[in-house]
Amino acid sequence: MIQSLDQKALADLLRRPHLRRLLEAFNGGDAETRVVGGAVRNALLGRPVMEVDCATTIMPDDIMRRAAKAGFKPVPTGIDHGTVTVVVDGEPFEVTTLREDVETDGRYAVVHFGHDFETDARRRDFTMNALSLGLDGGLYDYTDGVADLAARRVRFIGNAHTRIREDYLRILRFFRFHAEYAEGDPDPEGLAAAGAERQGLTILSRERIRHELLRLLAARRAEDTVRVLAEHGFLTWLLDGVAEFGRFHRAIAADAEKPVAIWRLAALAVTIEEDAERLRERLRLSNDEQRKLDAYAHLVRVLKVWPEPLNPIAIRRLVAEHGVETLAAVLPALAGEPLPVIRDNALDAFQRFESGGEPVPVFPLRGADLVERGIPKGPRIGELLAFARRNWLSEGCPTDEATAARLLRRVLDKAEAP
Ligand code: ATP
Ligand code: MG
Question: FRET pair for 107, CA 20 to 30 Å: which of 188, 202, 393, 400?
Answer without folding.
Answer: 188
